Structures are given as C-alpha cells and as structure tokens.
Description:
Layout lengths: L23 E12 L1 H14 L3 E6 L22 H11 L4 E7 L13 H6 L7 E5 L12 E4 L3 E5 L18 H4 L9 E2 L1 E6 H19 L21 E12 L9 E2 H12 L3 E5 L6 H13 L4 E5 L7 H22 L3 E9 L5 E3 L1 E2 L3 E4 L3 E5 L5 H5 L3 E7 L3 H19 L6 H8 L2 H7 L6 E5 L8 H11 L6 H6 L9 H4 L6 H19 L8 H12 L4 H14 L4 H12 L1 H26 L1 H7 L1 H12 L3 H9 L5 H10 L4 H31 L3 H30 L1
Parallel strand pairs: 2-3, 3-4, 7-15, 11-12, 12-13
Antiparallel strand pairs: 1-8, 1-9, 2-5, 5-6, 6-8, 9-10, 9-18, 11-16, 13-14, 13-19, 16-17, 17-18
Helix pairs in contact: 6-7, 7-8, 8-13, 11-12, 13-26, 17-19, 18-20, 19-20, 19-25, 20-24, 20-25, 21-22, 22-24, 23-25, 25-26
Amino acid sequence: MDEAPATLRPDPASILVPGATCWRLARAGKARLLIDAAEYFGVLREVLLKARRQVLIAGWDVDGRTPLHGGRVPRDGAPGKLRRLLRYIAKRRPELDIRILLWDFPAVYVISREMSPTITLGWRMKGAAKLCLDDLVPAGGCHHQKIVVVDDSIAFCGGIDLAMGRWDTPAHDPDHPIIRRSSTEKKLPFHDLQMAVDGEAAVALGDLVRERWRRACGEPLQPIAERIAAWPDGLEPMFEEIDVGIARTVPALSAGEQTAREVEACFLRMIASAERLIYVENQYMTSRVICEALLARLREVPSLEVILLGPRQAMDWLEEAAMGAARTLFVARLRREFGGRVQLFHPYVHNRRGAEVPVTVHAKLMIVDDRVLRVGSANLNNRSMGFDTECDLVLEAQTAGQRERIAGIRDALLGEHLGVTAAEVPGLVAAAGGYLAAIGERGSGEPRGLRAIEDSVAVASDVLESVQATTDPDAPGDWQHVLRTPEPEEIDFQTYGKSGKGLVAGIVFAAILLLVVVLAVGGKFLEIDAGSARGLLEKVAEMPWTPAIMLAVYLVVGTLGFPITVLIATTAAVFGPFAGFAYGLAGSVISAMAGFFIGRAFGSGLLQRFSRGRIQRIGNGLKKRGVLSVAGIRMVPIAPFAVVNLVAGAIRLKASDFALGTFAGMMPGIAVLSSVGSGIAGIIEDPSPGNLALLALAVSAWLSLVFGVRLLMRRLLRR
C-alpha cells in the first residue's frame, strides 16, 4: 500500500490545477492502466455483466461486432460481441438503462465502419439500449472521447474505441486469428491504452457523459445514488487512493461561447516540468504549440531526453499527406537542434515467416519523468488542442510508491516494444547511459523492437500550411460561427408529422428498405467510392438517353444516402464542368424532392426513432425562415443530404420553399465542385504536393463563396 497521499490541494507547483489544467480533480480508490484492447475488452465485459442501473458509452466509433473478450470467450453463457452482450444484459435486467452516445460521423467514414449505427445499435438492439448521434461540434470537428461508465462505480477512459480492428494483446502477434479477421484493410497489430478508475473519478466521468447527452439529445440523465462494488475480481490496481485530473477539450459552437482547452494547458505544464525523460506514445504529432514547448524545455534542461512512439505511417494516403508531412516537420524541428536527445520510433514485430511487421500505435500517452502519467483520447495535433472534443486522465504522483508505479508502467511499455521485461529495462538504460542509447543498442536482429522513423514525406511548408488549415486546425474559425444559425424555439414534431401508416407510404418504405438490404448484402453499397462511381458514370455517358439515366442515378443514389458531394464531383470529372454542373444541380434537386415526399409520407415517428436530438436541431433550423433556412443548411450541411430531405418533409415545409432553397443553397457548392471535379480525380490518382495545394485552394474558394453568400443571407434575415 502507498503511504497516505496528500488531499486535494491548491499546490502552486502541481501540474493539476482545477479550472486551468484540468476540469476536475477527483479521488479514485483504485486505478489501473489497461495495456492493449484485449485486456480492456475482457475487463469491460466482466464489468458490464455486473451492471445494475446505468451504462454510459461515449465514443468516436462504436461497432456492435466488437469482440469483448481477452482472447477466448468465457464459457459463462454470455455472448462475446458488444451488441449481443448488451442485449443479453438488458434482457436479464430490464431496469438497466443503457445509453450509447456516438459521434454523428460524416458519410465518408461509412466504408470503414458498421453500415448504420441507427439500425445496428438502435433497431437491432430491440430496446436494449438507447442511441443518440451527437453532432454538437464545429463544422469539420468530431467527438473524439472514448468513455464507458458503469453505475458511476467504475469508468474507463483512453484511446480505445469499441470498434473493429482494435483488439490486440501486448504480444502483437500479426498471425493471431482475431487480428487476421480484423475488418481493417491492413490487418496490422494495434497498440492502445485505456485507464480504469473508480470512486469519485468514475462519478465525474459519468457527469461528463450525462451533460453531453443532455445537450445532444435534450434529455437529462440522473447520476446513480447507490453505487456498487464493480471493480473486477482479480484485477490488481496499480494505484490506490490517488487524485485523478480530468482534462478536456471542448470547442465553442458559437461566437462568444465558453471553450475548454485544459488538454493543451496540461500538456504545456507537464512539458515545462520535465527534468530527465518525456516518454510519448501518440498517433499524431503535429501541434505547433507542443513543438515549441518541447524545444523550450530541451534548451532549458541539457540532460532531458524525448522518446516519441507513433505509427510508421498513417492509414491512408490522404491522412499521410496531411498528418504525416506535418509530423515530419514537427520531428525535424526538434532533431535539427537536439538530434541526439530526440527520436521518433515505431514498434515492429516479426510474423511466422520472419517478415518485419509494423505495429500501429493508436495510444495517446505521455509520462514525464516518474511523476506524471497521462492517458486519454487527445493526440498531439492541433485539432485535439481546441477543435475536437477530448478527455484525458492525468495522475500526478504524491508518494514514493506512486512514483515507482509510474516508472514501472513506463518500463513495462518500453519492455513490451523491445521484447524484454519491465524489470530488465532499468539495467539496459544504465548500461547504455540513457534511454535513447538503450533503444539504439538493441539492434535490428531482435524479433521485436523500435525502429527509428526517418523523414518520409517531403512537402513544402507553405503547401503544408494550406492543407493543415483545413485538416488540422487548432480552433473553430470565425467563419464557422457566421455559418451557424441560432436555433429557434423547440419544434413539436407531432404537430407536423403524420402517422406513416398509409398503404402507399408502406409500399415505398418497403421497396427502399429492400433495395438497401440487397445492396448491402451484396457488398456493393459499402464499397462505392469515387473510383467505382466514376466507372459507373463513364458507362452511363456512353448510353442513349444519358440525361434521363443520370437523373435516375441521382434519384436512387441520393435517396439511399450516398455522399452527394462525391457524386457531384465525379459527375463533373466524367462530363466536364458545364454538363457536370447541369446534371449535378438538376439531379440533386430531384433527389432532394424524392426524400422530401418520403419524409412527408412517413411523418416524424420514424425519424424520431432514428435520432431524436439531431432531428430536433435539423427541424429547428429548417423551420425558421423557409427558403432562406433551407438554402443556409444546404450551403453548410449540418446533416447528410438524405436526412435533411426526410426531416423537411416530416415537418411539413412548403414543397416550393424546399425546392427553391435547395436550388439556391446547393448551386454555389456545385459550381465549385464542378469546376474542380477533374482535378479531384487527379488528386486521388496522384496525391502530390502540387495537387494537394490545388485541393486546399479549391476548399478555400468554396468556403469564401459560402461565407459571402451566408453573410448576405443573415443581413437579409435581420432586415
């Protein structure tokens, strides 16, 4: 047991200062770092089976197919996958309230995720859980927190999503059957971390999720009055009776709204306190502020070493071009001045054939000396500092025992990557004269280890800045506040909706549902991308009656929810800017009207079942000013094209207002997409720095056009 720790204190030397570097400082009776998802998923499964009153899940991605076990499903009669497990638990405890709060992700992510969470985690749960899609982030931002709270008695927070492709063990065996069956394209070993806490720290995380639920879904949730002993049997805590700092990033949604940047403030204070070693595991390292802080501390402390662990490269070419190039410059700035004291590594293992396989690092961890341990969802990129929502847990040692445990965790992580035990790491470091030297002396002949990442992406700094301004901003820009329309009074959907029991409505709905199912089962719907769409349209261009066929394509594809912007850009690439503009605008309006009349036929009941909070906000926005409101939402879409169409019909908007608003609102964006459609196709085929600069220029032109038109509309509204 540790010696008695200090109580909550306003220590000026402390890293954790409520209201500055953390949101709250809360006591945990027990805390443990769970290393890699197999351990986390196995522990979470055991905790969920004990749940009595409330389960709160907040995630960037939640997939009902996720295997919740440590390797083999325990033979206790309970299912091993998330969706079936939640249904099993709810059936046995009807009083249990299960809430899933999921980021309302753009359609571009659908290829790598479960097809439709509103179906797979909503309808298919058969009432076992209530799902809410949370889109309360600035345009282009995301909810990135990964939190699970059970009965306010135990909570988990870190970098691990309840999603496919995350499961792995510290062995990172690339030949493991679960990794080989992963839904991810590359099927690489996956390293990540999650922290488990109980006590008041768990209650605080529950409060955080409940507040997000209230804002996103319009429904207050009550905390649990009587907590249970939920800590799993046999799970040895790493810390007992320790204060936990909860650091958040919460971006402002409107001009003048309060924001939270505790994640950034805590990072800066941690770096400024370092004396010997900063150990980092992180997916992205691009933040200008963090880079400057590291440079400043390295100058101040000549003996300081910085170890950075990340993935060898990003998951796809676009992410690599944006984040990979920025990481190259981030590390280059550090190494240019402190080459012998800073290095970026990626872990590797060997498969059964002896080939070297990189381990994907998704963890978000920083350990400073043996005093501060931090794990959460925040990357070291600009977005995590002020643009996306994040949540990190920070433990600051107050006793000798706590310091030993933090040092032991760091050595265990290094040992995992080097293929040695935690107990061997101090000896290796002492013999080599430092951590970086010890890593370097391990050599390349080992079955696993850390490989230095050399500069692999060369992009001019001015081009990079243009791309980063769009892909990796550190705060919502002023233009986003201008584009947002304040919500009017809440709309009563029952006043506007119909019952949806009509024979015609039922036939239309059944036909559409059948078509979606057939396409999904055939594997074609999820595989549609810009490339396959272009191939389809090239065939259409050679057919007779091309205009009629193109309108039919927009009618069907737009109604089924395929991203309309991808279809418009592909149309321009195939037919040229002028014909592409005509087809895109006419097809978009026709598709919008089809969805509008489907929404009118079914009324609000079906839509409310899909996503209460989101539908409420879309309806509020559409209701305000008829044509101008529709045009505004079309310019800066707050929801997918097909969803806006359905909601507009459900709230009984005037059809002519909706058609005119759609025409006026989509015309500027279609004009820009049509003019650069062929260029976008070229970028996909050749993601060179020059092409990326053209893409950034096109995005800037579109934003400028939208900004100007929306500003004019707001002035007209005020008049």
